[in-house]
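Subject: Protein record for review, amino acid sequence with backbone structure tokens
Concerning: The relation between a protein's sequence and the shape of its backbone.
How to read it: Take the token row as a discrete description of the fold.
Enclosed: The protein record, placed directly beneath this head.
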Amino acid sequence: GRSDFQLFILPDKKNTIELKFDFSISAKSGNKAFYPGERYRETDNLHLPDLSKCKNFVQNPSFEGDLTFWADGVTDIKPSPKIDNFWKISTKNPHTGKKSAVYTTAKGFNGPMLCTFPIAVIPGKQYTVSFFAKTDTEKTAISVFVHTAKWGDFPGSKRFRLSREWKRYSLTFTAPNEFLRLCFGDRWWDKGVTDNAHVYLDDVQLENGNKVSNFTQKPLFAYSDTFTKNQCIPENSKDKKINVTIVNTTNTTHTYSVYITIKDVFAKKLLSVKKSFSLDPWSNKTVPIRLNILNKMKGFFRVMMDVADENYGERFYGRFMIYKQIKTKPSLVYAWHFTPLPEQTKYLETFGIWGSLSFTPPDMEYNIKAKFHDKGNELIKILNHHDVASSREK
């Protein structure tokens, strides 16, 4: 299948690639004495939101939490050299609340689609996706594309011509397997017809059945630096911290109790913070969490955010890492699915990273402004799309 996190190894000087597969460690992984290292399967199980009681299955559907729980995906191989960041957050006349997502077009190109995180569904069951959208330019359109756990199984795809006023659009489909992502923007065969047209997206909903109901979302939301470059903290930083943001997604004032816990990969509790405060309608508050107690620690850390108002409560999850800079230059090239932007390249240099992070070997036409090294035998080591190379700021 196809994945946004594929690994590519370029040929050596003799234009050959040699791969060796050794399954001995996997075969013996049940023996703790054999491999006593990090055991994520036992200590750090993946978390998926419980959607069983939700009417709307989409997390952060009105973008009041910025682009948290959203990611780039389903894109053409080569991005436009005209635009650094196709998708951003807009505070200009949203449909609901104070924010919406905005997509900027480039003539002859298509940017990465904006996709939800994977949503668990029931195979064979009908679902309906709906959203509000508008544009500032005539003859501008947006596509919705349903991407599932199996590449090639796309149960829904439709393109909508937009107007200058907010309108609701919908698509009904039948889930072919257990997971899907909802993707918005230009599909890989769609090309922008003009430069700098703006498409605004808000109030996305996925619900059971073949009918559209009134938009709804959770009354509160919380997120940390997990979805920005700020979650990667150098070990020599003098001010180690992460930020946790609480969002009121209602039109009334509420008082919130917040309990933030940080654990290591073995689920050992390292520190906790309690807060209480009120938030006005559609407002948010960012709480800085100082990490001085982790002064000599490195690696991955979990962030658990328990947030409750007078009537509703939920636990949200995040993570961060403390890293040590790479000082040596290994011999292989690991390529990443998306080409980094110029400002991302500067940030990646703090990791001791050299080379290109593109889906294919770089073309100078697209990468010259990013000032890449042109040596083809250096290591690119990257955590994932959201860990170090996402440009999520407005």
Confidence is low (pLDDT under 50) at residues 1-9, 29-45, 330-338, 353-394. Residues 143 and 159 are 4 Å apart (CA to CA). Residues 1-37+326-394 form one domain.
